Amino acid sequence: MHLDITQPHLLEDYLKSKNWLNPQEQVLILEKPGEGNMNCTLRVRTHDRTLIVKQSRPYVEKYPQIAAPANRAIMEGRFYEKIQPFASINELMPQLIGMDTQMNIIVLEDLGTAADYTFLYQPGQGLTPADTEALAHYLSMLHRLTWQETIDGDFANREMRALNHEHIFKFPLMETNGFDLDTVSNGLQMISMGYKVDTKLKQKVHELGMVYLSDGRCLVHGDFYPGSWLKTANGVKIIDPEFCFYGCPEFDLGVMIAHLMMAKQTEDTIRRVYQAYGEVKNPQLVDQFTGVEIMRRLIGLAQLPLSLSLLDKEELLETAYDLLVNS
Ligand SMILES: Nc1ncnc2c1ncn2[C@@H]1O[C@H](COP(=O)(O)OP(=O)(O)OP(=O)(O)O)[C@@H](O)[C@H]1O
Ligand SMILES: [Mg+2]
């Protein structure tokens, strides 16, 4: 089964063969529910309801020439299974309706035609105190309730971590990575060179990369940024845990705070995150992951729709450097 937006009848037959649609239900139309790069994600409309169907392929959907771990949708499905017993996490995510490990397909509850939170990167946009608390509380619950003595082998997710490791900890500081940052912000290439030749920084980022790759005791979302948060009629919801793994909780928190900083959120908002999250085992590690996430988003390949001047970026890079090297 190859998910294809132009083939609603094929998908109807497939969903019925799996009992995920009733025998009399008809697929009216397939739609693209939102922006996504990695996978083929579709909204299925029938007379009575809508569903989200997501398939991962051995390549990145938007750039088929780039290989990617084929079973990442199944990792995502396993995440939803794992959190099933925990209402406080579960209720903030779509329900898993079905999973086909052979076809790398998952079927999810549709959370509605909600926008994600990347609007936060626009000037003057703020995360409300209620949303800030809900997101931090979600992370806190995820990390605490999934804590266990032994690492869950199902969640090693090594290939996805290797992919992310390359993008976060290696590519951004490569001197000759072939990516001309002046095409993003004129002058950024030169600014980035100062960091790319800094051996102390590179050593720190290398060590931090090893922490990221090591196994830990709790389930980590792995991609906890505004693109994974949906603003629905029932409040903020969290999607897309395909990069999940059993690792250190500081990673999710560091990434979240990095994005709040790049979205110019107030210090009050960041304080509120820490308050709602509760005890952090290693705050220094959170700072370091914040630093590395800022750096990779500003001088790495996975750019964001940020509205930052060159001076803003220069200042943020300095802050990131301090968090990494001097914290
Ligand atoms: N359960 C859902 N309910 C409503 N909309 C959804 C749901 N899942 C995904 N979407 C929409 O589809 C978009 C793409 O989904 P998702 O982020 O899971 O795909 P992806 O291919 O993994 O994306 P990325 O390349 O950003 O990792 C989301 O931004 C959102 O707009
Ligand atoms: Mg994704």
Task: Describe the protein's architecture and organization.
It is a single chain. The protein has helices at residues 8-17, 72-83, 87-90, 129-145, 158-170, 188-196, 199-213, 250-262, 267-277, 283-299, 310-326; strands at residues 29-31, 40-45, 50-55, 96-100, 105-109, 115-116, 218-220, 229-232, 235-238, 245-247. It has 327 residues and is α+β, with helices and mostly antiparallel strands. The strands form three sheets. A five-stranded antiparallel sheet has the order 1-2-3-5-4, covered by helices on one side. A three-stranded antiparallel sheet has the order 6-8-9, with helices on one face. A two-stranded antiparallel sheet has the order 7-10. A hairpin with an 8-residue loop joins strand 1 (29-31) and strand 2. Helix 4 (129-145) packs parallel to helix 9 (267-277) and helix 5 (158-170) packs antiparallel against helix 7. The relative contact order is 0.12. The structure holds adenosine-5'-triphosphate and magnesium ion. Magnesium ion binds at residues 38, 240, 242.
**CATH level-3 fold name of the largest domain:** Aminoglycoside 3'-phosphotransferase, Chain: A, domain 2
Specify the CATH class of the largest domain: Alpha Beta
Approximate shape: globular
Largest sheet: 5 strands, antiparallel
Give the fraction of residues assigned to helices.
40-55%
State the helix count: 11
Give the number of domains: 2
Major sheet: arrangement of strands: 1-2-3-5-4
Corresponding CATH architecture of the largest domain: Alpha-Beta Complex
User: What's the quaternary structure here?
Assistant: single chain
Low-confidence stretches: none
The end-to-end span amounts to: 50 Å
Could you tell me the strand content as a percent range? Answer: 5-15%
Elements, N to C (H/E): HEEEHHEEEHHHHEEEEHHHH
Radius of gyration: 20 Å
The assigned structural class equals alpha+beta
* Ligand catalogue: adenosine-5'-triphosphate, magnesium ion
The name of the CATH superfamily of the largest domain reads Aminoglycoside phosphotransferase (APH), C-terminal lobe
Pfam families: APH (PF01636)
GO molecular function, one term: kinase activity
Family: Belongs to the methylthioribose kinase family.
Keywords: ATP-binding, Kinase, Nucleotide-binding, Transferase
